[in-house]
Design brief:
The chain contains eleven helices and four strands, in the order ααβααβααβαβαααα. By secondary structure, it is of the alpha+beta class. The chain folds into two domains: about 5-175 and about 235-245, NADH Oxidase; about 180-220, no CATH class. Strands 1-2-4-3 form a four-stranded antiparallel β-sheet, sandwiched between helices. It binds flavin mononucleotide.
Length: about 250
């Protein structure tokens, strides 16, 4: 196996960090790697906010569901879907003398929202992998959407920009086991969709339950199926559609 694959296969979220700071050079490399991800139609429809002010971090920690590491991680990057920039650029072009043939930017298309979300996600995963290649570890923070409006106000996001996830990064102060993913036979098929292989799922559920027992020294023994059904019962973020529409997304 090559080093890139080894790095990818050894991913696990890190939620405890040493006090060692992340150098500016590493930050630049991580951002560069994030920007190198493929991007739909070359739109680059995302922005990354590196939150450094301690008072912003402590507010974000609370807004993200009281997750300690949002405040304490050496680095906290917020990835936003951003078509505000797209709109400014299109409006500029449309206003240029001699370019009046261009259609002005139209807000609110669902497709635009998908583009921005996918772009940000690809950039985020590249950032995580780059960080891991530098010996850092980290965790994505979807909790940033728990209070999406308050986060947007705090970070002064304009219309048509929305926070998708954060990433905490730093030098690992823990060494958790890698979490085994679903069997390939469940997520991968050739030529047509394959119905869920219940037997493979049962065996996977048992292995994940064993993993949790080992990781929590017996305090938790959830199966994968049970853990995801708990998640869907408790965390729906019902505010998201209204929030996104208010910001100019998902109107048509
Ligand atoms: C978009 C996204 C949002 C996430 N949000 C959180 C979060 O708010 N808090 C947290 O502790 N972990 C969060 N995670 C981490 C997942 O729980 C973790 O990746 C998953 O359990 C698999 O574990 P692993 O990363 O250790 O392999 C998030 C992951 C992703 C991709």
């Amino acid at each position: 196996m090559n080093q890139t694959l080894e790095l990818m296969l050894s991913h696990r979220s890190i939620r405890k960090f040493t006090d060692q700071t992340v150098s500016e050079e590493s930050v630049k490399q991580i951002i560069k790697a994030a920007q190198s991800a493929a991007t739909s139609s070359f739109l680059q429809a995302y922005s990354i906010i590196d939150v450094r002010k301690p008072e912003l971090r402590s507010k974000l920690k609370i807004l993200c569901g009281d997750q300690e590491y949002v405040e304490t991680a050496p680095l906290f990057l917020v990835f936003c879907g951003d078509v505000h920039r797209t709109k400014v650029v299109c409006d500029n072009e449309a206003n240029k003398i001699g370019k009046n043939g261009l259609t002005t930017y139209e807000s609110g298309w669902t497709e635009t929202f998908i583009i921005a979300t996918v772009d940000a996600a690809l950039a985020g995963q590249n950032a995580m992998l780059a960080a891991e290649s530098l010996g850092l570890g980290g965790v994505f923070i979807g909790g940033i959407r728990n209070n999406a409006q308050e986060v947007s106000d705090l970070l002064e996001l304009p219309e048509e920009v929305y926070p998708i996830f954060g990433i905490c990064l730093g030098y690992p102060a823990q060494d958790p086991l890698v979490k085994e993913r679903l069997p390939e036979s469940i997520v991968y098929s050739i030529d047509k969709y394959q119905a869920l292989d219940e037997q493979a799922l049962q065996a996977y559920d048992q292995r994940i339950s064993d993993y949790y027992v080992q990781r929590t020294r017996g305090k938790m023994n959830d199966t994968w199926s049970h853990s995801i059904s708990k998640k869907f019962a408790s965390e729906k973020r019902e505010h998201m559609l209204g929030f996104l529409q208010k910001r100019g997304f998902l109107k048509k």
